[in-house]
């Protein structure tokens, strides 16, 4: 059973409020797709020459055979590779959803971003099972939270759900001098991917949190001690492990600074 309560009042200033300045550091290749794909097509000069030599119908038939699918593009912002805030939010949220386990028959999270039980046991999801374990993946937590029913789980209160603004917001993480490299895998898969050692910077803002909920956010990023998190998986093909014998989807979250708002309650009570 999912434990649900009324969401906290968004119009009131309370709790811990502030900003995390962060980086995503890649330890393998990283691809977060834009949905765009390059097509390799003959040049305009080649088209004119084919039309001159063979006529319209024959030229179209010949050149159509030469059009091929190119590389899937990485998300770009102002020409710079980017990991969208929505992708980071989904990554962190799903990790928390899968980390929260039932106690005394009640669990503090529904499944919104994490795999449903019926999806988690496909043969292709074996890495997913290896990381999170079969027990939590077998849990049937029912439908996601519905604000119309007046109550939501803890994770939906923090990250938001339909009709409810989250208390935690993720900005885009934009690359710093990131070089993209074409990477090819099985079955004709072609990706433009950020190279290992790439850095993406962004911010995560939070409001009205309890101190331990800020800790839960960091836990979702793999941060346990210090400012550098454990290696986590992010992006397309993160469970594939490698593409073209190159590791893909392995990153670490790094905290550069925690800045509390002037309206924030103290993060630590030192009295």
Q: What does this protein look like?
A:
By secondary structure, the chain is an alpha+beta fold. The protein has 2 domains: 202 residues, no CATH class; 38 residues, no CATH class. The chain has 8 helices and 14 strands. The strands form 4 sheets. Strands 1, 4, 5, 6, 7, 10, 11 and 14 form an 8-stranded antiparallel β-sheet that branches. A two-stranded antiparallel sheet has the order 2-3. It has a two-stranded antiparallel sheet with strand order 8-9. Helix 3 crosses helix 8. It is elongated. The model has no long low-confidence stretch (mean pLDDT 84).
Question: Care to give the gist of this entry?
Answer:
This protein is α+β, with helices and mostly antiparallel strands. The chain has 8 helices and 14 strands.
Q: Per DSSP, what share of the residues sits in E-state strands of 2 or more residues? A: 25-35%
Distance between the termini: 39 Å
- What is the C-alpha radius of gyration, as a whole number of Å? 23 Å
By DSSP (H or I, 4+ residues per run), the number of helices equals 8
Helix-strand sequence: EEHHEEEHHHHHEEEEEHEEEE
* Domains, number: 2
The biggest beta sheet, please? 8 strands, antiparallel
Mean pLDDT: 84
How would you describe this structure in keywords?
271 residues, two-stranded antiparallel ribbon, alpha+beta, eight-stranded antiparallel sheet, single chain, elongated, 14 strands, 2 domains, 8 helices
């Amino acid at each position: 059973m999912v434990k649900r309560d009324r969401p906290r009042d968004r119009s009131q200033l309370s709790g811990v409020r502030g900003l995390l300045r962060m980086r995503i550091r890649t330890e393998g290749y990283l691809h977060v797709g834009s949905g765009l794909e390059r097509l390799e097509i003959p040049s305009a000069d080649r088209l004119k020459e084919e039309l001159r030599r063979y006529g319209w119908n024959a030229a179209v038939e010949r050149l159509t055979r030469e059009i091929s699918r190119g590389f899937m593009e990485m998300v770009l912002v102002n020409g710079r590779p980017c990991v969208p805030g929505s992708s980071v939010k989904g990554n962190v949220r799903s990790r928390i959803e899968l980390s929260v386990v039932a106690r005394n028959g009640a669990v503090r999270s529904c499944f919104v971003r994490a795999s449903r039980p019926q999806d988690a046991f496909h043969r292709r999801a074996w890495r997913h099972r290896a990381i999170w374990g079969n027990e939590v993946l077998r849990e049937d937590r029912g439908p996601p939270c519905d604000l119309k029913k007046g109550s939501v789980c803890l994770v939906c209160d923090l990250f938001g759900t339909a009709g409810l603004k989250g208390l935690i917001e993720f900005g885009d993480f934009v690359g710093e001098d990131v070089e993209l490299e074409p990477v090819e895998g099985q079955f004709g898969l072609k990706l433009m991917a950020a190279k290992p050692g790439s850095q993406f910077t962004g911010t995560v803002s939070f409001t009205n949190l309890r101190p331990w909920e800020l800790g839960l956010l960091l836990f979702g990023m793999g941060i346990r001690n210090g400012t550098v998190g454990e290696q986590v998986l992010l992006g397309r093909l993160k469970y594939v492990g490698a593409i073209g014998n190159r590791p893909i989807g392995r990153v670490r979250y790094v905290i550069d600074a925690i800045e509390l708002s002037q309206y924030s309650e103290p993060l630590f009570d030192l009295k």
